[in-house]
Amino acid sequence: MDEIELLKRDLQKLNDVENEYLKELLDAAKDFILEEGIVDDGTQSYKMIKVQYAAYLYRKRAAPDTVMPRFLRWEMNNKLFSQKSK
What we know:
The structure is a single chain. By secondary structure, the chain is an all-alpha fold. The chain has helices at 3-10, 19-35, 44-62, 70-85. α1 (3-10) packs across α2 (19-35), α1 (3-10) crosses α3 and α2 packs across α3 (44-62). The radius of gyration is 13 Å and the shape is globular. The termini are far apart.
């Protein structure tokens, strides 16, 4: 399944109305993740981190005081440590 479809399912979006915006969020998520030092290694875990980060960005726009979910920070830390240890 591609990233946009995964993101739509995470956000429970059934139509394509916001697809362009969601694609921009996925691009932004990739940039933010790269700033953390995590590179796209083509794995499923990277893909899911990117989708979850984009979902966090989407939810944050509705509630600006939303903090990054702990599970996402944990997954990003694990991915970074894994990549740096190789």
